[in-house]
């Protein structure tokens, strides 16, 4: 059973010297918890997270299933279903802490995500000193490429937040020397055997830990996992697989994917990524709530009138139409990114910061949600427009990969409810759209009005019942948190206006904010599952959205057209008004 296994920790020698590590995490008892003692963290705690020892436990899912097997480590070794080796196995293999190595294989390395996000994030981790001393990165895809060509391709995209820093060029060269490429088919055992051979050579007899990042279209996930697990999983250390979304299109296809993956992997080897959970402000949500006395008592139906989760992009789906048309905005953004944030926002206080305690609470929220009613949903699709300046923007259906009569929504707004004691009757509004007037992601918490407000008569014409307190957590861009309060305008009179108590990250912290993929990759390397989606969370998320999606599709619901670059369909306002709410981003 993997619960008793301890994770080998890495040598710290390559990490202690970097001055750039964010100082907000540290260790508790060598376990997998995050400390809240960020105020005392020193730069030397740089990537100390990597030194944590694993304290894994069997996981009882909310539906009662237990996700780890009872097989012994040796049995698991034999089965090639390794997670983490036991001390005996490590001893047998002659591995010590300083002798471990991590091999990261980016499957689909020729693709957009690999170039745009994964390699830059790995480089940033390397630059920060967060990768272990011994590591190798392999790109794997069908495209023919040499190591040199991969390095050239990757070097063009390492223009992440790090690139203006001291020694960046030098570090980049060092990093690229540790990147290699293997050409292969995703369903070829033979090609994965060849990859395994190369990985072994680089691992040089050290205890090997292997991470596979599936950056490929979902229809080939299972083939790749099958080959990686049977022909290229580690025989001495852990083997983990990061799986990118989409995890299916509905409950049925998602369950089928989970079942197929579980033929080859244990649940604790599967890291389902939702990169919104890796964003700094989303990570901070629990800190804000559970470490500040002033917020937690207000976090309920008693004080909160509604909560809004807003995602907007100021560009369309050009170039991704083929993918997008099959999924639509509800599957692309709401069912995962926004719902995950909602669950974190609304969960009860977890027993601890351990992954399973947090995920247990999130699942409870998801399972307490009321089925979404079609009349509580508005869908839209963008149409082409020409600005006054003469710039023309395309319609969604102008994309050659999108059928001309496509009804796929590029915008959706919905009102959701959590039927539990804390949130009974509170509307949780979601809004997500492409090709809108701005790019932003935020959480808005609108509080109830002050009963019998003494100052209503002095408000200078402002309706204080409308200008209630609002807490805004701006996930991106210009990360920040602000609280709207009513304040007296200075002077001899008594006039009120609404002002902001404002925490703008760029003004308060000199440090850049790491990309979500950096945090998540590091977590996967460390075996920290807190920010990854467990299978029962995924099931609950699909159980909520599948009936709605089915109804929309069966009824061929026609999306309301909105101009490219606008604020989206008017219907979203009627929806909010129906629930006595005004969108906070207006
Ligand atoms: P790509 O379409 O770029 O595919 C990645 C690689 O997979 C390609 O370079 C290609 O490599 C191989 N590939 C593509 N199509 C097929 C096919 N039909 N059969 C076999 N191999 C194929 O995907 P992305 O890089 O954009 O995304 C990767 C994964 O991440 C997907 O699951 C996507 O949904 C997800 N994702 C992507 C985001 C993004 O911003 N791009 C954001 C969030 C999630 P080769 O031909 O060399 O084998
Ligand atoms: C992805 C969606 O998951 O998130 C994309 O598939 C979307 O459609 C992207 O553009 C947004 O991510 P970010 O981090 O740029 O806000």
Automatic annotation (TrEMBL):
The protein's annotated pathway: Carbohydrate degradation; pentose phosphate pathway; D-ribulose 5-phosphate from D-glucose 6-phosphate (oxidative stage): step 1/3
Annotated ranges, domain Glucose-6-phosphate dehydrogenase NAD-binding: 106-284
Residue spans of biased composition, Low complexity class: 1-19
GO MF: glucose-6-phosphate dehydrogenase activity; NADP binding
Residue ranges annotated for the Glucose-6-phosphate dehydrogenase C-terminal domain, each copy included: 287-583
GO BP term (any one): glucose metabolic process
E.C. number: 1.1.1.49
Catalytic activity: D-glucose 6-phosphate + NADP(+) = 6-phospho-D-glucono-1,5-lactone + NADPH + H(+)
Pfam families: G6PD_C, G6PD_N
Ranges where the record places region Disordered: 1-23
Keywords, alphabetical: Carbohydrate metabolism, Glucose metabolism, NADP, Oxidoreductase
Protein's UniProt keywords contain Translocase: no
TM region positions: none
Domain of life: Eukaryota
Location in or out of the cell: Plastid, Chloroplast stroma
Entry keyword annotation includes Lyase: no
NCBIfam families: zwf (TIGR00871)
Function: Catalyzes the rate-limiting step of the oxidative pentose-phosphate pathway, which represents a route for the dissimilation of carbohydrates besides glycolysis. The main function of this enzyme is to provide reducing power (NADPH) and pentose phosphates for fatty acid and nucleic acid synthesis which are involved in membrane synthesis and cell division.
Entry-linked HAMAP family: G6PD (MF_00966)
PANTHER family, A to Z: GLUCOSE-6-PHOSPHATE 1-DEHYDROGENASE (PTHR23429:SF14), GLUCOSE-6-PHOSPHATE 1-DEHYDROGENASE G6PD (PTHR23429)
Name of the featured protein: Glucose-6-phosphate 1-dehydrogenase
Underlying gene: BnaA08g31100D
């Amino acid at each position: 059973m993997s619960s008793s296994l301890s994770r080998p920790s890495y040598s710290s020698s390559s990490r202690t010297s970097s001055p750039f590590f964010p100082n907000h995490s540290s260790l508790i008892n060598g376990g997998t918890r995050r400390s809240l003692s960020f105020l005392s963290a020193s730069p030397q705690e740089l990537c100390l997270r990597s030194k944590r020892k694993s304290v894994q436990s069997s996981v009882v899912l909310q539906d009662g299933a237990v996700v780890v097997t009872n097989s012994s480590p040796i049995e698991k070794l034999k089965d090639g279903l390794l997670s983490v080796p036991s001390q005996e196995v490590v001893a047998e293999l002659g591995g010590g802490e300083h002798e471990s190595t991590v091999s990261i294989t980016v499957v689909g390395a020729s693709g957009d995500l690999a170039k745009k996000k994964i390699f830059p994030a790995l480089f940033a981790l390397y630059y920060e000193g967060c990768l272990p001393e011994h590591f190798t990165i392999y790109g794997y895809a069908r495209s023919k490429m040499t190591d040199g060509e991969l390095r050239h391709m990757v070097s063009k995209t390492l223009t992440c937040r790090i690139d203006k820093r001291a020694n960046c060029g030098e570090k980049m060269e060092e990093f690229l020397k540790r990147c290699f490429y293997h050409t292969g088919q995703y369903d070829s055992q033979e090609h994965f055997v060849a990859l395994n051979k190369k990985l072994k050579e680089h691992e040089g007899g050290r205890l090997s830990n292997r991470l596979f990042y599936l950056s490929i279209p979902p229809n080939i996930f299972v083939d790749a996992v099958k080959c990686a697990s049977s022909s290229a999983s580690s025989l001495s250390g852990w083997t983990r697989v990061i799986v990118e979304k989409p995890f299916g299109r509905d409950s049925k296809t998602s369950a089928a994917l989970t079942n197929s993956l579980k033929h080859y992997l244990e649940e604790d080897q599967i890291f389902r990524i939702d990169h919104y959970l890796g964003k700094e402000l989303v990570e901070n949500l629990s800190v804000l709530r559970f470490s500040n006395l002033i917020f937690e008592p207000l976090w309920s139906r008693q004080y909160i009138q509604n909560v809004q989760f807003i995602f907007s992009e100021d560009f369309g789906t050009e170039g991704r139409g083929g993918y997008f048309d099959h999924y639509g905005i509800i599957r692309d953004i709401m069912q995962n990114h926004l719902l995950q944030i909602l669950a974190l926002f609304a969960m009860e206080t977890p027993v601890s910061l351990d992954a399973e305690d947090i995920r247990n609470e999130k699942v409870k929220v998801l399972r307490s949600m009321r089925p979404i009613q079609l009349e509580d949903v508005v869908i839209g699709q963008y149409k082409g427009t020409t600005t006054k300046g003469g710039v023309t923007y395309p319609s969604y259906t102008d994309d050659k990969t999108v059928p001309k009569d496509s009804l796929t929504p590029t915008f959706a707004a919905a009102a959701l409810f959590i039927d539990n004691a804390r949130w009974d009757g509170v509307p949780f509004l979601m809004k997500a759209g492409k090709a809108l007037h701005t790019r932003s992601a935020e959480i808005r918490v609108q509080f109830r009005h002050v009963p019998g407000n003494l100052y209503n008569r002095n408000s200078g014409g402002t309706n204080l019942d409308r200008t209630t307190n609002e807490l805004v957590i701006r996930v991106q861009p210009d990360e920040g948190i602000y609280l709207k309060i009513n304040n007296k305008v200075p002077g001899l009179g008594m006039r009120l206006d609404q002002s902001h108590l404002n925490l703008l990250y760029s003004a308060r912290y000199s440090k850049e904010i790491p990309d979500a993929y950096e945090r998540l990759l590091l977590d996967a390397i460390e075996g920290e599952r807190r920010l990854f989606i467990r299978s029962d969370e995924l099931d609950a998320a699909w159980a909520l959205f599948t009936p709605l999606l089915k109804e929309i599709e069966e009824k061929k619901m026609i999306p309301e057209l909105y101009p490219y670059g606008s604020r989206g369909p008017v219907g979203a306002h009627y929806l909010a008004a129906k629930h006595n709410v005004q969108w906070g981003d207006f």
